[in-house]
């Protein structure tokens, strides 16, 4: 593909040789004369200066450091995403139902869908056109998927789960398992029946081994365009607003509502029954015990220290209230 | 169902119209005149005042705020759990073995059990009466389950795992994988064979994608009535006492013993070889590096702050020991 | 087996009766006269003094406390690992392909491999000699495994994943799912195609429900001898050096490189694009927001406190910068 055509696809132009032929996308370090690369993280400036790439996508501000043909964009990472797809289109899916799949007689599978080996589809399930159900998936009774969904393999959708269009789910994810509803009856836990379901919007991506529990009474709801990484736990009745991104190993407890366009960094833990406003950004490892009414950036993680310093400082954390009181006493005395 | 009958089931009485017909249970917000609802979390008082429910289960103390028929109970959340089950009974299971299941010749499956499509049952396994093994489960050699267990789908029980009666396990859970036993032999890790197994008591519930490792020499043991949420990691030789509840994303390292009637909040991390007393309650996100000898409530999580404050305060955490020493010096001087 | 033979296997000698017959290995507490045990954690000294074991493996320094035959070694835990294997050898695997497995016509399975019930092997996959693929595994197109690997059950290897020799993978693990690559295009997340794969070295062990994502452009790489526990999340393009150990529930974000011979305690969270030196040891629960250039021990977790103290002290953490400034002002005044 000629570099000029790539630039056109991105809505920009080539500073340099537009006729250069590009066959691959690669990192600055590995790219050769037939590769295009990108520069969007300043940690890698040394690699930019030394790159052998045939072209680099980068911002106007960094163009001066580019030793080869440049494609300038406001957001070079978006440019990278688009060119990577342009050079590596998704292969066409061949529809069909593998002979080893087990289908309940009453399910409705579109003729343009694919059901993989050893997958099990329950009674009343509806599978949309162009939807791919990979090997060893389980879809319970009454599951409905939209069109062009992609369940990679070993995905479990419990009874009644609903997916919109173009939903991608990675292996090991479990949607619609019972929420953790238990009531303490004189020292013995009794189960609260989990009667709701899970509703996933359009264009949602759900990572490997992520769990999204069914609601207790209402549905758990994931908005359009939400992207969820691996090992995320989403409790019953949670609602996540459109275009929010949730990184790996995040835990969101039951009934919490997260706004639109938020980003939740890896390993955050969000308590239950909270309201998180739109456009809230949580740094990795943040504990969220209270609602957040204002958009903005929030954090709580303690940064690491060498062990000996950490031990001394942590002992002082336990004295903090006392330290503050002694400081106040001293201030009073010195007046 | 008449409201008077529901009240009787709960061991209470109706303040209002006992002949009211109730068909559903729902949230305060969504309930209509044929629905019963409940009020147990004061965050939702506004919804109580505005509810259109036909009846509400709530505590005596809150009855004054109830705009409709009231059923008063000491623990309205328990009332909710019981009425939800009363109105939504568990459907009868039809026993049988699906043609696609793969059974070792020597396993013993009770005639009243169900083995789902594509499940694999190993040699010498014993499956109790009324036990449901959903689709795509794997039960290794010598696994034994009690009666009336429910393995939803895609559950893996490794060789020799033992389940009591009425154990519920959600999809993706793995019981009996090898514990993380490694010994450092001059810079190279060698594996410690994991020769124990996993013993699960009666009435235990285990969440989706939770792992409970087999013991190194002794068994890992989960007591009767324990409830475990999703994404929990329980290391080898851990013992958890009766009626303890463990919320999502908790990690419990090897050989730790947790007492009875404890509650472990989401995302807690408990180190290995500890003893946690009975009736200990850990708030979400608590790190537990030491044994806990006394019952009570414990926490360690830092609450979130706006980023700019967090950055300034975290820098000071690293100076805490120095701050405490400077304070002491100043105190000495001012005497 | 005679105790003298066990001692010889360990490269040590018996202090006591070398002709004693040993049949089992067990804990100090449960061992009887025909059992050998070990002592490597001083928390268990009381059990050593009271043991009924036929022999104990322990260090020279602890031999005086041993009430029975002693085998002294510099590292008794290594001795335990070796004797446990000696007394419990891995059973011979019988090769073969189960009739219910689904194999793409073009895959190449060594005659000495085993493919379990309901496993699915994709086109072009290559399975090495002595490799065991347990029940309900999914191996995508072009997956290659070395010799003598062990995939316990329900393991998913996505397209193109490469395993070295003697790799053990526990149930529910997912290797090669797409990394979390998303680019924000004016408020809408677009997917960054994940074009790399995953390369696992020799003698690696990977825990249950652990995820290792495929690289965006380059491969994600796990070095020889690395041991990874359950519920670990390893992002795209991560590289882990040889003989590093990663405990349960650790999250390692994308593009981070971890050195050789490191140990990462349970529940650590490591940010993306970092460089961690060789021989770094992270205590459990450590947040790592920055690169670590020097080997050593690091920590960040706050230890737990009784709730009432924690509440008071945490309120002060939010005032820390102010406290430090007030202290400085007081110091200036007192000069």
CATH superfamily of the domain at 3-87 in chain A: MurE/MurF, N-terminal domain
Rg of chain A, nearest Å = 25 Å
- CATH architectural category of the domain at 3-87 in chain A: 3-Layer(aba) Sandwich
CATH topology of the domain at 3-87 in chain A: Udp-n-acetylmuramoylalanyl-d-glutamate--2,6- Diaminopimelate Ligase, Chain: A, domain 1
> How many beta strands in the DSSP annotation of chain A?
37
Number of helices of chain A: 5
Strand order of the largest sheet of chain A: 6-9-12-14-17-22-25-28-31-34-36
What is the CATH domain class of the domain at 3-87 in chain A?
A: Alpha Beta
| Largest sheet entry of chain A | 11 strands, parallel
User: Which oligomeric state applies?
Assistant: homotrimer
User: Most extensive interface, residues per chain?
Assistant: A-B, 73 and 70 residues
Beta fraction of chain A: 25-35%
Query: Which residues of chain A sit in consecutive blocks of at least 5 with pLDDT less than 50?
Result: none
State the helical fraction of chain A. 10-25%
Quickly give the structural class of chain A: alpha/beta
């Amino acid at each position: 593909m000629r570099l000029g055509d790539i630039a056109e696809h991105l809505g920009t132009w080539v500073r340099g040789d537009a006729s250069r032929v590009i066959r691959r996308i690669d990192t600055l370090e590995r790219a050769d004369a037939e590769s295009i690369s990108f520069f969007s993280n300043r940690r890698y400036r040394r690699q930019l200066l030394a790159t052998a790439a045939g072209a680099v996508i980068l911002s106007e501000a960094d163009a001066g450091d580019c030793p080869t043909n440049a494609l300038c964009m406001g957001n070079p990472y978006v440019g990278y995403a688009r060119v990577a797809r342009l050079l590596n289109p998704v292969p066409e899916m061949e529809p069909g139902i593998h002979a080893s799949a087990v289908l309940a007689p009453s399910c409705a599978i579109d003729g343009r869908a694919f059901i993989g080996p050893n997958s099990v589809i329950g009674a009343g399930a509806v599978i949309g056109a162009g939807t791919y159900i990979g090997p060893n998936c389980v879809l319970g009774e009454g599951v409905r998927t939209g069109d062009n969904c992609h369940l990679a393999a070993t995905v479990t959708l419990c009874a009644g789960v609903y997916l919109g269009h173009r939903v991608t789910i990675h292996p090991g994810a479990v949607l619609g398992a019972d929420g953790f509803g238990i009531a303490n009856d004189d020292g013995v836990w009794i189960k609260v029946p989990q009667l709701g379901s899970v509703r996933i919007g359009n264009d949602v991506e759900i990572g490997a081994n992520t769990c999204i529990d069914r609601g207790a009474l209402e549905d758990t709801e994931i908005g359009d365009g939400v992207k969820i990484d691996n090992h995320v736990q989403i409790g019953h009745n949670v609602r996540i607003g459109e275009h929010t991104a949730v990184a790996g190993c995040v835990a969101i407890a039951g009934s919490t509502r997260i706004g639109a366009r938020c980003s939740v960094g890896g390993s955050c833990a969000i308590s239950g029954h909270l309201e998180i406003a739109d456009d809230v950004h949580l740094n990795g490892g943040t504990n969220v015990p209270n609602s957040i009414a204002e958009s903005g950036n929030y954090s709580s993680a303690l940064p690491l220290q060498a062990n000996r310093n950490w031990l001394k400082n942590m002992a002082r954390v336990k004295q903090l209230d006392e330290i503050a009181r002694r400081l106040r006493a001293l201030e009073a005395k010195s007046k």
